[in-house]
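Thread: "does anyone have the structure for this chain?"

Original post by V.I.:
We have the sequence but no experimental structure in hand. Need at least a predicted one for the grant figures.
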Amino acid sequence: MKCGACHIAEAKRQTHSVMAHALAVPENSPLFAKMPLMRVQKGAFTYTVETKGSQTTYSVTDGKKTISIPLHWTFGVDNQTFVFEYEGRWYEGLVSYFAEVKGLDTTIGDGGLRPTALIEALGRETVQAERAACFGCHSSGSEANGTVDLKALTPGVTCDHCHEGGLQHQAAALKGSRQGMPEDLRKANSDRTSAFCGQCHRTWETVMRMTQLGPFDVRFQPFRLANSKCYDGGDQRISCVACHDVHAASRPVPETVTAKCLACHSAGISLTSKAQKCPVSNTNCASCHMPKVALPGGHKLFTDHYIRVARSGEPYPY
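Reply from O.Q.:
Generated one for you, tokens below.
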């Protein structure tokens, strides 16, 4: 779509956003140009990710035999997980790149795996439904009746991925009509935006159906936000887009978040019966009420969207 013909500023900023780079082919990933050779030892197996020219290869060896596979896709921006095909089956690499350690380590969620054979050490085999979900969130135009159409997809999240009906809107606009306008989530309440963003970032209902809960669910922002005492499903002021400019390259700064908090929690304002003034400070609200949480095995701190009075040393609440 040619969204930038009319929405110039948004389209320009969006190309630099994190979501726009959620999926990449290795030859277009800055990581491999910067780090052409990465290697790590995990148990009896040695993993190597090596780039020569435009080709990046993922290899695992037990010292006697080696499996080497051309990388097809890399998921993520700061941390990157590798996905590839081997003998007709699709795998998520057992090791991923982590920016914090500037190298390879066990892929998040795979810490409990103890491979004994070379093919097991290669990675975790994925099923079709999982691949469709992964590509569906990290790319655009990939879904085809529950399967992944690799030839049709566009890496990363593009305009039409979120703005459903964009093609129809564009066609109408070319005729001078405003019919078929895509939904404007800025005007939606928090339940609607949580449901929409939660398609990829996980809704409360999705997470509650999981078999386990714990610190790893800090990644699922709509779920965490819905647990907050101040969450109101009918209020726009506590929605995802109240703080997050999804077209921006950077995340919200403390001043922006604080201003959103003080819209309800400030002296002389009683917009809701629950909105009390913080007795400690009126600056950098998120530093206390949205603490950073270490993602197990993720070498990264996530902002916990469960807004609360967080106390030092308390167990992870869920």
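V.I.: this helps a lot. The radius of gyration is 22 Å.
O.Q.: and The chain is about 25% helix and 20% strand.
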